[in-house]
């Protein structure tokens, strides 16, 4: 299914003790496990920075401190039968309190009722061919 639209997304890279916080998606189209940093789509009139703060507050209940823009990425891909064209703004951030890191995984329910689990994933284990830190190219820009 092709929606003939472009999705603009903002996400945050949180790194703690050699791990990165990600949403794990098993993609039936390419057989890989996609590791997607938390975040979401921009609303009309909202900057990527504003969207990032709103999405992290909605998903995790965190106030965050944004440290820097890691980069912007453009991708054309298929995820579980859905063709997408996406532009992503990815920021390095941290919660305003390090006490927020005290969980291994957390299930969240999005506004549309979709459930997803965020979990801490060892960065060093992402180097094999079965995992993809999304968006493509992000792994090379993330350092411990």
Polypeptide structure, described:
The chain is mainly β and 144 residues long. The protein has one domain (2-99, 123-141): Nucleoside Triphosphate Pyrophosphohydrolase. The chain contains 2 helices and 10 strands. The protein has helices at 48-60, 138-141, and strands spanning 2-13, 15-16, 19-26, 33-36, 39-41, 64-79, 82-95, 105-109, 115-122, 131-133. The strands form 2 sheets. Strands 2, 3, 4, 8, 9 and 10 form a 6-stranded mixed beta sheet that branches. Strands 5-1-7-6 form a 4-stranded mixed beta sheet. It is globular and about 40 Å long.
CATH superfamily (homologous) name: Nucleoside Triphosphate Pyrophosphohydrolase
In CATH terms, what is the architecture? Alpha-Beta Complex
> Can you write the helix and strand succession as a string?
EEEEEHEEEEEH
Point out poorly predicted stretches. none
Number of strands: 10
Content-based structural category: mainly beta
Number of domains: 1
**Biggest sheet character:** 6 strands, mixed
The amount of helix comes to 10-25%
Q: Judging from the principal axes of the Cα atoms, what is the shape?
A: globular
The whole-number mean of residue pLDDT values reads 88
The proportion of strand residues reads over 45%
Distance between the termini: 37 Å
